[in-house]
Amino acid sequence: MRAVSSSPIIPQYSGPNVRGLIPAFLGPKGAARPSWLPPVAVTATQVVLFVVDGLGWEQLQSRVHLAPTMAAMAGGPITTVAPTTTATALTSITTGLTPGEHGLIGYRIDVGGDVLNVLRWHTDGAGDARRMHEPTRLQPFTPFMGERVPVVSKADLERSSFSTAHLRGSTPVGWRVPSSLPVTVGEQLRAGERFVYAYYDGVDKVAHERGFGPYYDAEVAFADRLVAEVIAALPAGAVLVVTADHGQVQVGDRIVDLDPGVARLVHHGSGEGRFRWLHARPGAAAELAEAAQVHADVAWVVTREQTIDEQWFGPVVSPPVQARLGDVALVARDDVSFHDAADSGPFQLMCRHGSMTSAEVYVPLIAAAG
Q: 331: domain CATH number?
C-alpha cells in the first residue's frame, strides 16, 4: 500500500520548485543561480530544460533499473505546484509564476460561470472557447521572461489555445516522431541558442490509459533512452536538466460519487477528479463546507479561504483568480477520484493526478552535461 502523509504537501514556491526554473536560467546575466539547482547546471552556458510530463520522483525512484541514464544524473526531488496538474504546472514553469499569479489554476476552471477545460480550451457543453475566453487575456503574462526561446514539442500542439496561453512568443520547432526530439535539440544548441525548452508527454499518456504495469514500465524505459540521446546530442559545455509537471497515482475504478447530502448543495464542479472543486448553490457555501466532511475518510476537505490562507497557490491570489476557485475542494488523500459527469473523456483514466500527495507533488530535478 502506498504511504500517504497525514497532511497535504503545500509547495514552497520560494525554494526548490518548478516555478523557479525559468527565472534561474533566463534571469539577468551575472545573477547567481539558486543553490538548489544540480551543481552541473549552476554554471552552464547552454541549458536544455526537458519536461517529461507525468514522471514523478517516486515513480522514477521505484524504476531506476529501467532508467539507468536518469538514475545516474545529479540532482533530486523538488516540488511542483497546486494543483498537481499539467495546465497549471506547465504555465508556472514557462512563466516563472505561481498559480495564484498566472491564473490558470486548474485543469477545469470557472471563468465567469463558464467551466473552461484549459488543455482543450472548451467550455462544458459549448465547445471551442477561444473567442469567448481569449488565451492571452486569461493568462496575460509573457512566458520565458520575454525571450524568444525554441520550444521542442509535439508539432500537433503548436496551434492550440493552451500553447498560446503558456508558450506565446517562443519559437516552435516541433517534432512529429519522438526520435526527432534529440536531433532538433542538438540543432538548436549548435545554432547558438543558450536555452532550449523541450517537452514530451508519453509517460503521462501511458499512465492515464494503461496504469502502472508493463506498458508504463516500457514507456519509462523509452523516455530514459530519449534522455540519453539528448545528452549525446549536447555540444561541449551544454547541460540537460530534466524535470516534470507532476507525478501519478493509480486510481483505476475507485471512483467516488458525491454523497447525496453534499450533491444537493452543489451548483456545479470544476477542477479534476483528485482536486475536485465544489461550487455551492447560492447561500449554501457554509453548509456545503460542513456537509462535505463526510468525504474526509478519503480526502482533505478544504475551503477556498483555507487554500488561500495556507498559500497553496502562492502568497498572492488576486481577486479575479480567487473567483475561479470553488467554495470547497475535495483533495484526494487516498487513491480515489471524485466523479463529475461534466468531466469525462473517451476512456476511463487508470492513473490520475491533481492532489497534494508526495507521489504527485515531488518531481525530479536532475542534470547531466554533454
A: 3.30.1360.180
